[in-house]
Design brief:
Radius of gyration: 26 Å
Largest sheet: 16 strands, mixed
CATH class of the largest domain: Mainly Beta
Number of domains: 2
CATH architecture of the largest domain: Sandwich
Shape: flat
Strand content: 25-35%
Order of helices and strands: HHEEEEEEEEEEEEEHHEEHEHHHHEEEEE
Structural class: alpha+beta
């Protein structure tokens, strides 16, 4: 009987160190974002001002930022629901990353560059917001991208889902609720901010100013509040337009892998061990081989998704009725001259052995490469459509 009790105790009661390991694992995953793929040169500047070269398994905490160089690309997994791809020449900051408490928000700040973002929309997943100096964006979208085109221009383009965008007055956020309740001007501004929302939905886009001067005012008085309210009223008049999403943009979004929490934890731990400096040469080589293997596994999955997408483009092509629409989607158009004097004008999208696949105004056309005399590339630069 005593043996049975002891066995049950061992089965159901974890040792304190086992419980601690579980908590550490949770904390490691929930307290930062993890780099799942990287190419080109990029670096992370931590909140304590230390720097590191971005690599598979690099992690972020609140206050960190990442800077990508030319021809570079970094995929990051955040929490249980967010996958981000950062393109070249971008600066992305993490003012807040959610902790174990799922009610904590994740906030990202795009200082410069371009992001592609996929987010799961299931309930009970961490909330996700994007901020600029004077914009506050609640991410309800499944799939979209944002580009800070210039210092005073930012573009949001939605593939699936929606965004809710509001103006932001950072210094007003520092004022307590009790102060707002006791000040009539503060109340007016608060109410105005609450009602000023723009919705950008599936296949829509909108250009906005991410840095409105009056919203950056350090002085919150009756005069500045009056100007802010006037600017907020102007903000309400912005309207999204139909988006002109390109094939490349669509492909970037389709090839961002969904969050894999176990894999994120594994590569974060692996990277931490390798960076510890406490490993002998044999162990370090062993772990490095494992990391290279994981990198190949992730890149392999991305290539599979890329192939699937390119197949879909041929099998289920978009309806592009004009040459202008072809140029907008493919960002180019070609003229293919045939030996019998005929020609096709469209975007070359694939070559299957000796068959060239072309997307034209009338749909998908297949041409034998033996019948082609000449291909005029970038035809849109030579002819006005």
């Amino acid at each position: 009987m005593n043996k049975i009790i002891l066995l049950l105790f061992l089965l159901f009661c974890k040792r304190p160190e086992d419980k601690l390991a579980v908590e550490i694992e949770k904390k490691e995953f929930n307290s930062h974002a993890v780099v799942m793929s990287t190419s080109g040169e990029s670096r992370i500047i931590h909140s304590d001002l230390t720097e590191e070269k971005t690599s598979l398994g690099s992690s972020f905490k609140t206050g960190d930022k990442i800077l990508t160089g030319a021809k570079s690309k970094v995929d990051i997994s955040i929490g249980k629901s967010i996958s981000i791809r950062i393109l070249e020449n971008s600066i992305l900051e993490f003012p807040k990353l959610f902790q174990l408490n799922e009610t904590e928000n994740t906030k990202i700040f795009l200082k410069k560059g371009k992001l592609f973002i996929n987010k799961k929309t299931e309930k009970n997943l961490n909330s996700f917001e994007l901020i600029t100096e004077t914009l506050f964006v609640i991410i309800k979208s499944n799939s979209f991208f944002v580009e800070r085109v210039e210092e005073e221009e930012i573009l949001f383009k939605i593939l699936e889902g929606k965004l809710v965008i509001s103006p932001r007055v950072e210094n007003f956020e520092k004022i307590s609720l009790s102060e707002i309740d006791s000040n009539s001007n503060f109340k007016k501004l608060s109410q105005s901010l609450k009602t000023a929302t723009l919705q950008v939905s599936k296949e829509e886009e909108i250009f906005l100013n991410p840095k409105v001067k009056i919203f950056e005012s350090k002085k919150i008085d009756s005069n500045s509040i009056s100007k802010m309210i006037s600017e907020i009223e102007s903000f309400k008049n912005f309207k999204p337009t139909l988006s002109s999403i390109t094939k490349n943009e669509q492909q970037e979004l389709k090839t961002i892998l969904p969050v894999d929490t176990k894999l994120a934890i594994e590569i974060a731990k692996l990277n931490e061990e390798l960076a510890s400096g406490k490993l002998d040469e044999k162990k370090a080589d062993e772990l490095e081989k494992k990391r290279v293997g994981l990198q190949k596994q992730i890149l392999g999955k991305q290539e599979v998704e890329k192939s699937k997408f390119n197949e879909e483009v041929v099998v289920k092509p978009r309806k592009l009725k004009t040459k202008k629409e072809i140029i907008k989607y493919y960002e180019r158009i070609e003229k293919i001259i045939l030996s019998d004097g005929r020609f096709e004008i469209g975007a070359i999208i694939n070559q299957e052995d000796s068959i060239m696949v072309i997307h034209t105004e009338s749909g998908i056309v297949r041409v034998n490469t033996n019948d082609i005399v000449e291909v005029i590339y970038d035809y849109q630069t030579k002819v006005k459509f």
